[in-house]
Amino acid sequence: MATDTVRGARKVGRYALLVVVAAVVxxxxxxxxxxxxxxxxxxxxxxxxxxxVDLTFDTIRSAWxxxxxxxxxxxxxxxxxxxxxxxIITSLLAAYAFAFLEFPGRQALFAIFLATMLVPVEVTVxxxxxxxxxxxxxxxxxxLIVPSLATTFxxxxxxxxxxxxxxxxxxxAALDGVGHMRFLYEVAAPLSRPTLGALGLFxxxxxxxxxxxxxxxxxxxxxxxxxxxxxxLKTPNDISKFNLLTGGLVVAALPIFIMLVVFQRQLxxxxxxxxxxx
Amino acid sequence: xxxxxxxxxxxxxxxxxRFGEGDDQVTAVDAVSxxxxxxxxxxxxxxxxxxxxxxxxxxxxxEDPTSGDVYIGEEWVNNTQPKLRDIAMVFQSYALYPHKTVxxxxxxxxxxxxxxxAERAAxxxxxxxxxxxxxxxxxxxxxxxxxxxxxxxLARAIVRNPAVFLMDEPLSNLDAKLRGDTRAELxxxxxxxxxxxxxxxxxxxxxxxxxxxVAVLNAGRLEQVGTPQDVYDFPASAFVAQxxxxxxxxxxxxxxxxxxxxxxxxxxxxxxxxxxxxxxxxVTQIEHLGHEVLxxxxxxxxxxxxxxxxxxxxxxxxxxxxxxxxxxxxxxFDATTGVRVS
Amino acid sequence: MxxxxxxxxxxxLMLVPSLALLGVWTIxxxxxxxxYGHKRCDSTFRNCTDAGWDRxxxxxxxxxxxxxxxxxxxxxxxxxxxxxxxxxxxxVLADKHLKGIGIFxxxxxxxxxxxxxxxxxxxxxxxxxxIGVLADLLSDWFPKLKNPGLLNxxxxxxxxxxxxxxWASLGFTFIIMMAGLQSVxxxxxxxxxxxxxxxxxxFTNVTLPMLTPSILFVTVVLTTRxxxxxxxxxxxxxxxxxxxxxxxxxxxxxxxxxxxxxNDIGTKSxxxxxxxxxxxxxxxxxxxxxxxxVHYGN
Lengths: 278, 342, 298
Known about the structure:
By secondary structure, chain A is mainly alpha-helical.
């Protein structure tokens, strides 16, 4: 009896702690979302701004129009989608060569691939900016997409899965005369679907959230991504329009949060692939 | 189109396969020459690492011989791609495509060859009928038992209607009971298809019960080729003598029951309890197996095993007994090379 | 040998896309940056003179770089330990079989998907001195929230950036730690429990040692992130506040709009290469430092 009570009390205590901590973690998002759902002056009437009353979509609507957010969302969606598809294709191809084909210099080439994983974007942008400029890719979709189409991480991840597929599958297919591309398309890729999903999700989020590279090569309005566009809504000198930024934040973050909730498992798998396997 | 109806002997001429380079080089198959006749059920038998799978894979075209020639039919196929060799292979792990249904697995080889949809379906259905898979066509391999998967692998091979079936230990992942049943079915399949089977195994029971002929390999070398009965009755070497037969043949040290340069071998059933026999031994174990009794004894010439009828008058544990060989069934092997001398 | 050469043409075809892209957009710029790093160029980039390899040490010792390096290091010191402790804390809290725990895990991982822009601007909104929620709610305890505002005071601007970074990384840290915790074999806890270890001892003797691979990984990632901070600076402080360099990190020194080396490709390249080396050195040191203390299980 006594232990039951103690256990029950502990459980309640733990739930209380969880709720408090969750509230703290969520507070920034909650505050911003609620401000976005209030009309101008209401948004700054603290702490009443934190109560879910007098909600309206007006702020989000004006942010949408003022920031041309529809266009920016489409830009981000297009760029992230293309990069995701591209990365999956280039990763599949290169991983196949490394996992299933034998050729002189394979080890050395793979070592070079791995080494490039260490080079951060922050180092390469200096020169890439000039390359893009030379190609005439400033303010263009190619400029946003092409440099990100191949990642060592993707090649590494997919190769890892391919190496775990039984060798006999390839041999059985070879006996039937299945060529490399067909085996890749019909057997290897479908069998790697969970990993490809994680890679795709990861790539999509990374591209959607990218800031440094787009900020260096995009200066016009047409090709801005949603991340860059938010900066435009940031009007520190005009406080009356300040809450438009909250509306923009909600618009920019919402697609990503939906993805997070839907694909949580794949995301965790992608993130932990690097950590647990070392 | 009926199954079978190919002519396909397989000929290997001093085929050698080495792996690795320099000091790490290993000779997996060492100058093996072997004629496999049309419509034969040839067993490649040997312990693990003896090169039997490598030999099969060279016939399939999955490995290139380091030297030597491979012929299928009359054609020299060393440089022929696997898909053009008119062979099908069943792997030890079955190598089924886990994401495809049973039907899609069976149809896949035909699809790759560009066979039309209707014909594909008909052929797959026919193969499924032969192997009793009709009820499982929509399942995926993961939903099947080991025996069913094995049948799908077989079905996938037979839809191709190849001249030569290659099988690499196809029964080793099955439990003992199922293995027994499947052995009989494979023999039956061979009879119905009337094609050439090349079958790799380390299990001498499979070799004895299924093969038209058995090729025994040891350390990359071909020790003997012959019918199961031949190989059992007249083993060509001490290795074959000990590898085939359960329990294995008693192999006496040189000098015992023979001259110093000869080792005498006696099968357990030919080692007889003989008062006044030349081998003096102490009984260490008596195994009653129902239809027979195995008597284990320790002698100056090492451990001996004799196979006795259950009705025989049996000694007790620890008894001293005298044993001798049935003179008609003694095997003599060269003491240094192990080769049969008579 | 024959077989190896047979595979070569398809292998090359399949590798060409990745090789070409990585070559042009990763390997070439790295090599080119290393090359430019020892040159002095005018603003057209056309006329460059070789300044020798000690140009790197000149750049390293220059005041701007040293200042930026200090800012980057301070940011790492502020974000990494706190981020780690919070991440472990959240993971331990959520690693219990309770009804509805999945909701809490989702909440704790929620910031993982927020990009640097969204996370930074969320805090920009919260920290706004006149109308931000935090200024209104907490200025009695922290008057600086209202006047001049955390981001506008050179002393508090960097901690405020750190706050945003920690929050933004929390989801990632939590997910890695959670995965680390769940890979700890349950029987280890049970045997410690049977041995009479209290919950604190179980944490220090079982949980922490088993978490070391995850801790190492997160430490390396968080440190690298801190050293490479650009977006949060660009969006929150532009390297300032005002004309101070209180939040000018190395990346912001290189890429910021108002950077003093904005048009100096030689110095920019040298600084970028030095940043790369710094990240490598830190990662290597952390791997060494943890060294044998990392338990990779069986």
